[in-house]
Amino acid sequence: MITATINNIQVEVPEGTTILWAAKKANVNIPTLCFHPDLKPGGQCGVCVVEIEGIPGLSRSCVTPLGEGFRVRTHSPKVMNARKEIVEMILANHDTDCLTCIKNNSCELQGLAATLGISTVEYAKLAERLPIDRSSVSIVRDPNKCILCGRCIQVCSNVQTVNALAVNHRGYDTVIGTAFSAGLGNSVCINCGQCVVHCPVGALYENSSVEAVWQALHDPDKFVVVQEAPAVRAMLGEEFGMPPGSLVTGRMYAALRRLGFDAVLDTNFSADLTIMEEGTELVSRLKSGQKLPLITSCSPGWIKFMETFFHDMIPHMSTAKSPQQMFGALAKTYYAQAKGIAPEKIVSVSVMPCTAKKFECLRPEMKASGYQDVDYVLTTREIGRMIREAGLDLKELPEEEADDIMGEYTGAGTIFGATGGVMEAAIRSAYFLVTGRELENLDVQPVRGLKGIKEAEIDIDGTKVKVAVAHSGGQARALLQKVQQQMATEGKSEYQFIEVMACPGGCVGGGGQSWGSNMAKRARRGEALYEDDKARSHRRSHENRSVLAVYEQFLGKPNSERSHELLHTYYQKRSPVDGKVINE
Amino acid sequence: MSLVRNHVLLSIDAGTVMAGARAVEKALVEEIAKQGLTDEIAVLETGSVGTVGQGVVMVVYPEGVYYSNVTPEDVPELVEEHLLKGRPLKRLMLAETPKQAVITKEKAGLLKEQPRIVLRNCGVIDPEKIDEYIAEEGYMAIGNALTSMKPEDVLEEVKRSGLVGRGGASFPTAMKWEFARRAPGDIKYLICNADEGEPGTFKDRLILEGDPHKLIEGMLLAGYAVGASKGFVYIRGEYALSIERLEKAIAQARDYGLLGVNILESNFSFDIFVMKGAGAYVCGEETALIESLEGKRGHPRIKPPFPANAGLWGKPTVVNNVETLANVSEIIRNGADWFRGYGTEKCPGTKVYTIIGNVATPGLIEAEMGTTLRDIIYEYAGGIQGGKKFKGALIGGAAGAFLGPDMLDVQMDFVNLKEYAAVLGSGAILVMDEGADVVDLLQSVLHFFKHESCGHCAPCRLGTAQLVKLIDRIAVSKGSREDLNKLLRISDVMRDTSFCPLGQSPYLPISSSIKYFGDEIGARIR
User: Fold this and answer.
1) Of A23, A47, B95, B451, which sits most exposed with the smallest number of CB within 10 A?
2) Does the active-site annotation cover A493?
3) Going by C-beta distance under 8 Å and a sequence separation of 6 or more, which residues neighbour residue A289?
4) Alpha-carbon torsion B119, B120, B125, B126, what sign?
5) ipTM over 0.85
């Protein structure tokens, strides 16, 4: 243990604790800007500096471990002056059109300037305006807002191991950009949006579809259907000041109905459908022993990651589309027929915790219905803005139900939003599909939680099935490299089934979540989904009556020809240089 | 050799090559052949003889006559007059012969003899011939060390010598070695920092060009002391001749079994690899250098951990400057006590300077620690050009400090200069005569920092840009008193909060220029 004083208050902390964390023990919040609790500190901004007796200059508290006997001052005149000067210089170079900025009132720089009481900026504005990068269908990057804190690079390189973003040029000309400055849309970016949720300012945000959706809603000739991803119900409350992990399913339906959506349906329904397709696929691969391990395909960030960096895994991928795209394919076919609506009049909107879904819905192959299956994807943040714009406060709305025939869901569908959820849901149904009996203990604890790579062995009537779950690009890369190595040396992998989600924590940690995210919040949202699961009367996908009805009335049976036509897809190799499809 | 009557040492360094040294060499060899003197006159290439800006330079021995600004057209006359008839050609002789730069071992003329530790062989031997280095007792130190000294003994000897780093930070060399030696791990690395980027500094280049084997021997000794088996020389990519000579020297040392496995039949194995930098000033900072060596962007790292514990590829690593390592073989061969006979009690040894600006003979100088600035300028560099008055000097390059006209008698060493809020830094001395414009100089210094800021941290990236904006305004007499205050204020905050020494540096030239030349700068305020 280290004993030292911070502002004359004695603290005792384990060796290696940084001054920033130690100060919290003395109830002092040292202001920070580039620091993020989930990322390795880079020491870029210099805002968190403190004075340590006997050490010349000021030290960055985010990276300096507290030393024995240190006498630290966090708010000495020298420190306070330095902090202000730095933030003033940052502000002088920052595009301060705060009122029209997407981050207005959520901006960490804005908050910091207020905390430090900065009233004037004495420095010359030197920056020239740079073009905004709109090359990506998912993410917009505005270099004029960027303060070069480096968080986006940290998360893109170290957490996701995508390395789409890097530092270009140097010194005063430094900008964050992609290889060849070609823009995110022409890079290996997987659209996961982790850069967006880690950006402290308004330099990174989703490519918004709010205006387009308003237009559709206001168009009397259109029939606008909406689906909401599992994770959205566990995070939308935060847009309205509710604590992370508040489950707002019923209020969400109410809000969407009041916005004018003609049918409020649910992606959880198609999550259950996904399990029917993917579970059946798993069972048939287990029987044949072919193309194992089977790897899940729900996460569009993961799909592009795999297509770019793991070409040899393409045969192992489940061909099942993601729940969003299954929903989309059925909305303009099955739903349109059942409700007697012309499919061309249907506008299919999805609300997702995700920025990569915007890319997924525009993939050219996602037109199984003969139309673009999903027309617009809104992030949780965007739907939050729309609800507020409509004068609604989610907290005050009543709990309502989803509309029929694609609104019912089971506990298995809802846990799709947390890492390990797809795996758990699949196990519940695969057990039934193989044995004809129901799995008794439905809680597959080893695949839950935020551990990087989770493993479990399931006994299905004497057949041992080894499964693994990875969340984040980095963990996926590590797991797949292990699989590659096993296949190269032993001819097969120890795993039969693998779930991968591109974002840390799964969809509850997606790039479309509310600003100011961290792993603790992601964990609470995940827990909320498991509570939702526990509270459902049905917790297995094959018990979803609406799903069973689709098969009876429309698809036949899982993995049928029609299912394959509408609910399954294929993958293409992409260049690890620019992320474009390689035409062989 | 015995038949040879005259040796013509042709200085081959970047400056002289650009001035046409190769063409002169060719003409010389042809002319000598034409005159039938090939058996009597040997033409040898050597490193810099210590001159700068004097065109093609050569020395004719045994007379020790220096010629400068030699062109191929001069060659027939020179050969005819001096080499055939023995009459030195006055019109090409270096003014005021012999110069401070003369590498004769005897005291010459009015000028002080330079104590030569680091530069002992520079300009004397052919740097491309390992045998010439060996003839000057080269590789004797490593031979002794491997046969009769334990690594700890080598470390102890260097510790006793009081050698501190010559790259600018003056950290005790042996202490650095000891940290790395004690750090757990089987694999350790030694890096020679030859990324000399401080403006006005070119001493390492000239050491490398003039005596590359000395660096190799120093690295061998350091590697032995630290327990490293691989050494890297991270060298400025622009130093083409240094790279060529160093690579040649490494190949020769390998041939002689002085690099590689079981050197001199000992258990010590060591090899050296040359890595070229791409010219970023910040890569002279040791952690940025390591990042660059690893193939990454040259950004400084967070410390701790320090390189001695986790450096190159996470392994314990020592990073030493060229000049530092060039001292090591002399210390081991002659002993720490001998080394301490040079310089001052607190700061033993010598320092190699590059002296530029308004002096009569700019160039490379080696002087004892503690030598006064006056002696360096007037005894070694021939005084101020054109007999003008001394106005001041910028010591230590852009990251250094200005000294004013009343500072001529300051003792130049790492310890003493601190008392005057100055630094020896890289050993660059830029001398200003009475006509020099301090604001111009400060302006170019601040532009340099803006250009070289890596952009990683906000205080440096934004601060250097603001400083440039302010000095540009002051330089054209449009600045205000408040602008001057801001210069100080920003650079002060940068000194306290910048991530690495680059951003911490502008304060020193700014504060010292205001201290010594406040009136002059104030006169530029509108």
Assistant:
1) B95
2) no
3) none
4) negative
5) yes
Give the rounded distance of the alpha carbon of B474 from its chain centre.
Answer: 33
Q: Which chain A residues in 12-71 lie under 8 Å from chain B, judged by CB atoms? A: 41-46, 49, 57-58, 60, 63, 65
Q: How confident is the model at residue B50 (pLDDT cuts 50, 70, 90)?
A: confident
Provide φ and ψ at A294, rounded to 5°. Answer: -80, 140
Instruction: Please name the residue that has the structure tokens 């996701």.
Output: A160
Any catalytic annotation for residue A278? yes
Residues of A in contact with B457 (CB under 8 A): 43-46
Distance from C-alpha of A445 to C-alpha of A423, rounded to nearest angstrom: 11
What gap in Å lies between CA A407 and CA A548, rounded to an integer?
13
Which of the residues A39, A85, A88 would you substitute to probe the B interface, choosing the one with the greatest number of B C-beta atoms within 10 Å? A85
Spatial distance between the Cα atoms of B82 and B101, rounded to a whole number of angstroms: 21
Helices (H) and strands (E) in chain A, counts: 19, 17
- pLDDT tens-place string over residues A459-499: 988 889 999 999 999 999 999 999 999 999 999 999 999 99
Amino acid (one-letter) located at A436? G
Is A494 an active-site residue? no
Chosen for mutation from B303, B452, B497 (greatest number of chain A CBs closer than 10 Å) is B497
Find the chain B residues whose C-beta atoms sit closer than 8 A to any C-beta of A. 280, 297, 299, 302, 304, 450-459, 461-466, 469, 486, 489-490, 493, 495-499, 504
Indicate yes or no: CB of B459 within 8 angstroms of CB of A58: no
- E-assigned strands of B266-380? 271-277, 317-321, 350-357, 363-368, 371-372
Question: Cβ contact (<8 Å) for A172 and B464?
Answer: yes
Q: How many CB pairs under 8 A join A and B?
A: 93
| 3-state class (DSSP) for residue A493 | coil
Q: Which residue from A43, A78, A124 is facing B457, i.e. has the nearest CB?
A: A43
pTM of the full structure: 0.89
Helix intervals (H) in A298-389: 300-309, 323-330, 336-339, 356-361, 380-389
Contact yes or no for B490 and A147 at CB 8 A: no
Beta-carbon count within 10 A of B468 CB: 20
CA distance B191 to B322: 10
Q: In this model, does residue B106 exceed pLDDT 80?
A: no
The tokens for A296 are 């899940």
Q: Give residue-wise pLDDT tens across range B184-211.
A: 999 999 999 999 988 888 899 999 999 9
Rounded average pLDDT over B319-344: 96
What's the pLDDT at B99? 38
Is pLDDT above 60 for A582? yes
Region A238-243 average pLDDT? 97
Check B302 against A147: CB less than 8 A apart: no
Give dist(CA B452, CA B199) in Å, integer.
11
What is the average pLDDT value for chain A, to the nearest integer? 96
Q: Is the peptide bond before B115 cis (omega within 30 degrees of 0)?
A: no
Q: Which residues of A103-141 are buried (b: 16+ CB within 10 A; e: fewer)?
A: beebbbbbebbeebeeeebebeeeeeeeeebebbbbbbb
Q: Are A116 and A84 in contact, with CB atoms under 8 Å apart?
A: yes
What order do you get walking across the sheet with A223-228 strand by strand? Answer: A263-264, A223-228, A346-352, A376-379
Query: Which amino acid is it at A512?
Result: G
Distance between CA atoms of residues A431 and B396, nearest Å: 75
Q: What is d(CA A514, CA A566) in angstroms, rounded to the nearest whole number? A: 32
Residue written as token pair 């000028």: B111
A101-119 confidence digits (pLDDT tens):
999 999 999 999 999 999 9
Say whether A89 and B463 touch across the interface (CB within 8 A). yes
What are the residues whose beta carbons fall under 8 Å from the beta carbon of A114, sequence distance 6 or more?
A: none
| A147 at B interface, C-beta within 8 A | yes
